[in-house]
Amino acid sequence: MTVRDRIRWWEPIGASYRRSLVELCAVGILRPLFWIRVLGFSFVVIAGLIAWLVSMYPTIAIPWAQLITKALLGALLIFCACALVAVVPRRIEIGPDEIRILRGQSHARIILERIENVFIDDSASTPSHLVVLYRTRIETVETLSFAIKPTVDREALDSLVRQINSAVRSKLTHDSVLDGPPG
After folding, report:
1. DSSP at 89
2. What angle do CA 129, 145, 158 make, to 5 degrees?
3. Per residue in 37-87, pLDDT tens?
4. Looking at residue 137, what DSSP letter applies?
5. Is 114 helix (H, G, I), strand (E, B) or coil?
6. What are phi and psi of 142, to 5 degrees?
7. Taking the chain, what is the end-to-end CA distance rounded to the nearest angstrom?
8. What is the helix (H) or strand (E) element at residue 145, kind and residue range?
């Protein structure tokens, strides 16, 4: 497969931002209770360490300002990582044998053998979305949706989607022939 067989695009910022906020809300990071738990857990761990240090070294001088500053910096780093997830869009690469999702230094890959169905959803959402149904390693079916940038060549993308779906259907009929009739 050559580089030209692939279609690549960055997800539009608006769609990527909304999706990231939904994902962060689902995880609970945007809830105040999450931050109360993080700071509470940090306080308990630090208090335990301080109690241990004082019991081991009774004359130790505790740098309270530095401890409080480091605890707040930890929470700030978690917040900045969440903001980075919300701001950095995904890069989508689709080829006839795989779909890659790249963000920053991480990536995910869905190989053709795991894909169940691929289609373009043009219903009422702006921009259009590419929807991929695939099987995970534990054989559950998951759905991913990618916003399609308006500059993407839709004819080439439609052709590639048809090619992937025909390969998926031929794989399914081939597998059912190998399995034989039930009974």
Report:
1. P
2. 45
3. 877 887 888 889 888 988 998 888 888 888 788 878 887 888 888 777 777
4. T
5. helix
6. -115, 160
7. 40
8. strand 141-147
